Amino acid sequence: MKKAFFTGLILVLALPFVYLPLLSLATQWRFPLLIPDELTLQHWTQALSIGGISGSLLFSAFTALAVALACTALGFRVARTIARHPHRQTLVAIAYLPYAFSPVIYAFCLQFFFLKTSLNGTVAGVFLGQFLIVFPFTIILFVNHWTPRLRAMEELVYTLGGTPAAAWSRVLLPISRPALLNGLFQTFLLSWFEYGLTSVIGQGRVPTLPVRVYQYIGEANPYFAALGSTLLICPPLLFLWLNHRFQQKIHA
Amino acid sequence: MTIQSRSEILFVAFFILAALFPLAAGLSYALAYSMGIAGALGTGFTLQYWQTVLGHSGFWTSAGLSMAVAAGCVLLSTGLALAIVLTFQRQLVHSRLRFGIYWPLAIPPIVAAFWGFQLLGSSGLLARFAAGTGLIQGPEDFPPLINDPGQVGVILVLTMATFPFFTVVAQQFFRSEHIPELMRLARTLGASHRQAVWRIAVPVLLRKLRPVLVLYSVFLFGAYEVPLILGNQSNRMISILIAQKFRRFDLLELPQAYVITVLYALIVLGMLIGFRPGRETKGHAL
Q1: Quick check: B265 and B27 in contact, CB under 8 A?
Q2: Which residue of A has its CA nearest to B137?
Q3: What's the maximum distance between 2 C-alpha atoms anywhere in chain A?
Q4: Contact flag B128-A10 (C-beta cutoff 8 Å)
Q5: Which one of A81, A158, A190, A191 is most buried, by most CB atoms within 10 A?
Q6: With respect to CATH, is domain B29-275 assigned 1.10.3720.10?
Q7: Which candidate, A229, A197, A230, A236, places its Cα nearest to that of A215?
Q8: CB count in 10 Å sphere of residue B197
Q9: How far apart are CA B231 and CA B237, in angstroms?
Q10: Which of B15, B115, B257 sits opposite A20 (nearest CB)?
């Protein structure tokens, strides 16, 4: 009985992953039909050729990757300093502030400064805006990774005559690989999912995939919105699966 | 001062510059604008915009609605997550389908809102099921679940988006806090299954989940995408109210937008200081 209920629950959770691709392939899906009349690739070929969605896909991927790499690298190093800082608790509390703030409201607060520096409506502005949200998150993510045990391992390298470069390349980075991968994965998703701040700072001139999906919803074009949504949920799903497999491998 | 300690100071300075300075600068500008000290409408110190906002029901309704939606979603999500973890423990550990509980984490808020629209709309998937089973005759018979004044659609979709994360975290705590062992011990000492669940598992999980619940209450209080698409436009959540005031062509609304932004920041700060989600939980149940 429990097994059946659990299966039912998972099926309900899987519903959007079936419905959205199906809607993107439908030519007409009138009420009260439960499945569309006809499935074609018409919307996909249209959207990818003239809809500009392929550009948005590449742009979103590039932005998310750039934000993830920058924030993970910097966050990992800065978190080490904060973890060993006498005012660690205060600094971690500061890291929560921009992360907890609604991105869209944060963007309205920053808009004046972005306008003054001509960053509004630019790719650099969107990158910087997303960096300001994602970077503090990496501190929250990595600060507990820098344990006294890791510090002791680092100090052991110095005791044995190793240089700081050797400590990083031979001990700290190899041992932190799972944490770094997890950080990259989570920061990529934060940027990939971001809509509120991007729509304000980008002013519609920086068409990331979430911005494009909102545009299609506003235009009452559910087929293109479903197509954009399908593209948006695929990479995170793949990452989740890879992460799940990776964690299983670690715990095996 | 050594090179190493100088670089450590630089890292802290960079952190302050990236994490605190932009927010502090933005809020200072918002405060100055709201008091007539800065901006195009700055004619000198005045509290008239503050009096307008605080004397008008718009802000209070939005803030109250946002709090109610956040509280409702957190309560529903916590209840669902605990029920799933405590009922389907065997499946969450051994079932081949257990990875399915992670799937909703791959859905961005904008897609969750669109999916909610497609699911709960008057000609959406639920209405089609209702029509298929003869419960309704047409879309007009389906109860309004989106853009409704009660924000039912917003609460349902935000809950659907939140509870899988709570489930995953609660499941981790269920193992890390050795709750199965604690429950077995309680049963050995004569407690019933119900007592073991309600007096051991639920309190321990709630205590461990507390920081996550506080953080999510703050996130949901400022939720934007879902209420933007599914919310009622006359009964608006606070992020929508702020966005609408900023985006209006009427420049006279801008100082009010900044007033509400400062008030929003104060509420968020109050929640974070009051409940301190970053505080490290010391000690384990065992």
Answers
A1: yes
A2: A32
A3: 74
A4: no
A5: A191
A6: yes
A7: A229
A8: 17
A9: 8
A10: B115
This complex has an ipTM of 0.91
Residue appearing with tokens 């932009």: B22
B126, B142 in Cβ contact below 8 A? yes
Task: Give the domain A58-251 fold.
Answer: MetI-like fold (1.10.3720)
Q: Where are the domains of chain B?
A: 29-275
Set of chain A residues whose Cβ sits within 8 Å of the Cβ of B147: none
Sequence-ordered list of residues with C-beta below 8 angstroms from that of B261, at least 6 positions apart, any chain: A105, A108, A109, B27, B30, B34, B242
Question: Model confidence at A38, in pLDDT bands (50, 70, 90)?
Answer: confident
pLDDT digits (tens, 9 = 90+) for B99-121: 889 899 999 999 999 999 999 99
- Interface probe for B, chosen from A78, A105, A231, A237 (most Cβ of B below 10 Å), is A105
Predicted confidence (pLDDT) at residue B279 exceeds the cutoff of 70: no
Query: Which of B29, B95, B113 faces A6 most closely, judged by CB atoms?
Result: B95
Query: B219, A100: Cβ pair inside 8 Å?
Result: yes
Burial of A201 (0-12, 13-18, 19+ CB in 10 A): buried
Give the pLDDT band (50/70/90) at residue A247. Answer: confident
Q: What residue type is A215 in one-letter code? A: Q
